[in-house]
Amino acid sequence: MIYRKNWAAKNLLHFSKDVMNLRRKLIYIILGLVIPALAFFLYVSSHYTRGIILEDKIKSINAILDQNVNSALQAVHEYKSSARLTVRYPPVQGIIRARKTGIDPLDGSSLQDWKRRLQSLFYSKLETLEPVYQIRYIDAMGKELVKVERLGGHIRVVPEEELQNKSDRYYFQNTAKMQDSHQVYVSPVDLNKENGRIQIPYKPTVRFCIKVLGEDDGRFQGIVVLNVNADELFNLLNVPIFGDVFIVNQDGNLLSHPDQSKLYGAQLSHGYNYFKEQPELVKNLKKKDFMSFYDKGEKEYRVWKKLYYQDGSKDRYWVTVHRFKESQLLALFYSWHRTFLASTAVGIVIICFLAWFFADTIIGPIIEMSRAASEVKMGVEGFAISNKLKERKDEIGQLAQAVEDMSRGLAEGNMRLDRTVKEKKKKKKKRMEDLEKFNRIMIDREKRMVDLKNTINELSKELGRTPPFDVFKKET
Q1: Which of 292, 325, 290, 293 is nearest to 306 (CA)?
Q2: N or C end of the chain: which has fewer CB within 10 A?
């Protein structure tokens, strides 16, 4: 009986371990299917989302770049229109007529009268056009006749003794050579010079120049020049979403840059040229007017676009470059990715709980069936499978009912077997008792026969006869 209990306990222990192993295996199977699929989805969605964000951001930057370039071009067109309007001021032709004799033969005004009138008009224009800091009328020999400028927030008329000769300056020479008198020459951006020296503090300047022709003979009579603060113009281009923006001309000289020590290398002693750092830009500028370029070494994007500022010329342009690190561009992606990873981690925990619950749901009926089978095997009586399990309409319910029917049948068979065994034991016991009783009778009979033989032998001896039975010998 003790051996049977130990055997039952040992089998229950093995059964519990098997059940736990089965549950663990099922959980591993579920997680093994779900987690790789989730990891694959995470990789694909991250890669796809990263590409979408990059594409969307670059499109946004290109759109803003286009908007900035169009704004700058619009400003350039306005300055050109202003130059065309300025050259038509009546005092310009009045000065031309009065210079011959000192008096305008048309209305009798003196040369100084016309100069004062033109100074007044230039003064008014500077008041209305703040980026324009200087307006001049230069004669055919390159001498400044009228000059009005803005210095330190104040507008002043430059006196006669401070006027200079600009015949050696490239913008005067190039404007004088232009065939179309209505076309405005736009100078390259450089640092303004006064009296042959670079002006301090530096004043980046773009000049809008137009020829002056005499009304009577159409001969060249000089140029009108509007000096525009280039930084004010470039502010229209320096509107980054993130990263930084810089501007370089067709020769690789930086005109606007966060590091101001690199600006105007062609005029200043440092001689910095951006094309030496980025030779790829030189090649691409020859092929395209705009581009989005990814630098693998620097891990940065450079989105650039040309701005042609001189009508009819493709050789002179500014390039506005929007530069930003890949990490800046993907900041939104990384934020989304962290959130997604956190959500995925929570999802995995939930999946683990669901896997445990699902495994328990599947394994629970199997556990109960296995327990029933084990109890049947161990001869445990009086167990029952839960009604909830038997009431199921699937194969589990059918199996539960079959196991209970089987266990009930086995129990009834065991009861019949026990009754049969008890009856046979009872019959066997009665038979043994009958045999023992018969054996006692036979033993008594043999004893009486021996006693009778001994009596006969004794009587034969008394009669002088030989005893007929050798009882002792026979007994032995």
Answers
A1: 290
A2: N
Residue 101 is which amino acid?
Answer: T
Provide the residue type at 11 as one letter: N
- The reply to whether 102 and 135 lie within a common domain is yes
Q: What is the pLDDT of residue 284?
A: 93
**Same structural domain for residues 285 and 172?**
no
Q: Which domain holds residue 312?
A: 245-324
From residue 45, alpha-carbon distances to 32, 66, 329, 439 in Å are 20, 31, 18, 98
Classify the C-alpha dihedral 229-231-232-234 as positive or negative.
positive
36 HSE (CA, 13 A, CB side):
5
Count of domains forming the chain: 2
Are 109 and 175 found together in one domain?
Answer: yes
Q: Alpha helices, DSSP H only, in 240-386?
A: 274-277, 279-287, 326-329, 331-378
CA-CA distance, 326 to 332, in Å (whole number)? 11
pTM above 0.70, yes or no: no
Q: How far is CA 196 from CA 96, 212, 217, 268, in A?
A: 27, 24, 34, 14
